[in-house]
Every structure is written in structure tokens, then in C-alpha cells.
Hints:
The chain is an alpha+beta fold. The protein is 28% helix and 25% strand.
Amino acid sequence: xxxxxKIEEGMRRAVEGPFGFFFPTRLQPVELEHRLQRAMEDNLTxxxxxxxxxxxxxxxxxxxxxxxxxxxxxxLEQQHAVDPKIQTMGERLADSLITLARQRNYLMTTAxxxxxxxxxxxxxxxxxxxxxxxxxxxxxxxxxxxxxxxMTSIEMTRAMTADEAAEWQRQQNAQAGRQPDxxxxxxxxxxxxxxRVGQPMRMVQSSMRIGRGSDNDVIINDGRxxxxxxxxxxxxxxxxxxxxxxxxxxxxxxxxxxxxVPLRNNDRIIIGGYEFVFQRR
Length: 281
């Protein structure tokens, strides 16, 4: 079999099978797919009775693996332009994440965005994946990233904007006999910054409760954190931080609070060994 025949055979496998394309490196597309799915499972957020799956993924690849994946993505895009029935690489990867979210009944706030990044510190055949929940209206979000490395989004399944998610939650509350939250909350986010940076969490209701218990809006698995430790509320045009009589207290900008205090943009909240930055518009 000549070189052109081998390339043609490889492309046939890529189109007909689930990433059946064999690279000259050890890393296969199916491995990338599985790692993205694992990253989804490892970075779920439980808030307001919902399980939210990450919608933003960054895969760090070695230089040769990145070159091979980029070549495959480009080849599939060219074939997609000729025959729209052929999925691009980004569509296949996004579709696998959407399918998993549907099967597990996870909520995705937008269709998944997947970005490939060349990293000289990653060994050939290996990869590192980070997964976050990102609100398109959150500070620092760049909509252009949806098209990086050919990773275009596809038809959304269980995809909602933050406002739609809030409306969905109000409907769930009504069905469960709970009083719906009628107050409109302006855009505000709580972002973990320590012990590691996490995904911004938007307040979609007029309160966000924080603690170790599984029924909190923000769950912190730390023995220093009380079951119901703190709450952020939106009252009469202001965001307020309350300490719910926790055992170890709540710090705002390094100072323990002993009464409800108003929150300002970029305030830092410390609960146990965790630090969060509050941001609002």
C-alpha cells in the first residue's frame, strides 16, 4: 500500500468509525474523547438541586500530538465542506459530551466549547484536560474561543443561558410546592481562587448558600466548614454576606465578620481553606 493509499485509508477510518484514525504518535482521538468525558464527570457542580456539567474544555497536547490532531481536524473540515453529513472533529467531540450529559441528566448551560492547546511540557502520547463551567456573560469570557482549533459547537441539547436556568429552577420550585424567587438578581459571580482557581458560579436566585452539606448551592468538602456556613443574599439592591453561626467563621478581605456586610466588586471571601472572589456588574 502506497503513502497516498495509507492516507486515504486513514481518512476513511476517521470518517466511518468513531475516531478510528491512527496517528504516528501514541495518542488516539478516542483517548481524547474519553478524557474529555472523564473531565466532565470529575468537574460536576451541584447547585440548587441541579447537576451542572462543564461547558468549556481545554486539552493540552504535546507538540507532535497537537500537529497530528490539527491536521486531522483540518482534513475533516475540508470533507465536511464537500459533504455536510461528515462531522468535523469538533462536532464529534462536542456530540460525545452532549450525549453523555443527556444520558446522565446533567445540565449544560451552553453547548460545549473545546479548545486544543500545544504544551511543550506534555509528553508525547499524553494530555492534560481542564473543564470549567463558564457563563457567556461572565467577566473574562471570550465568545471567539468557540471557534478555536476548529472546535465549533453543534446543536445544543439541554443547553440554557443563565437566565433560562433561573427560570427553569423557578419552574422546578413551583412543581415541588416551593415559593418561587420573584426578585430579579443582577449579574453576579462567585469564583474559587484557593486552593485552586475554579469556575465562576453565577447567582441565579436571590440567595446562594455555602457549606459542607450536599443541599447547599456551593458545596465545600472541608472539615473546617460547617454544614451551613454562610450565605450571600440580594436584598433591596445590595448583595450581603452572612455568617450562619458557623464554627470557624467567615472572613471578608481578611477580616472576620460578625454581622451581615455588603459585598463590593472583587471582594475576597474566605471560608475554611477556600477563598472566593465576588464579582458583580
